[in-house]
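can u do me a favor
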């Protein structure tokens, strides 16, 4: 599967007073990597959203399991890829590591968003071209 990586240096602004990452930051970084996956696959959500038939890929479920804390100054590596396709949805798996130790694993479920004739948000089938692009065997670092 297509994989994105993101290198993260844990800064003071990411931490709580105990110098441990404030948990919501993991969700921000997972979202960032999901959008990076889509962009590498050929879909820049920032420009595609102008299409009145496309309403991005709304998040319907997200979860994280914390295995060990990340601390101020740590260098993390986030690795993300699609783990499963449904008809109108896709699942993205995320793994945060530090020195080859898994700190956090996460999962997102997103739907392919479209609109009906009244402009109401609808779930649409994930296009074949995006499934094919996200299924390619490649790794892209989106840190820059």
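np, heres the sequence
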């Amino acid at each position: 599967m297509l994989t994105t990586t993101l290198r993260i240096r844990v800064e003071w602004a990411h931490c709580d007073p105990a110098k441990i990452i404030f948990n919501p930051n993991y969700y921000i970084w997972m979202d960032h990597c999901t959008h990076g996956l889509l962009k590498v696959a050929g879909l820049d959500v920032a420009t595609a959203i102008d299409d009145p038939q496309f309403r991005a890929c709304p998040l319907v479920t997200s979860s994280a399991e914390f295995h060990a804390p990340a601390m101020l100054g740590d260098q993390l590596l986030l690795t993300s890829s699609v783990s499963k396709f449904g008809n109108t949805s896709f699942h993205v798996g995320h793994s945060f590591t530090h020195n080859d130790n898994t700190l956090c694993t996460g999962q997102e479920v997103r739907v392919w968003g479209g609109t009906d004739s009244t402009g109401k948000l609808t779930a649409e089938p994930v296009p074949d071209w995006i499934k094919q692009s996200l299924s390619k065997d490649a790794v892209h670092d989106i840190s820059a």
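The two ends are 21 Å apart (CA to CA). hope that helps!!
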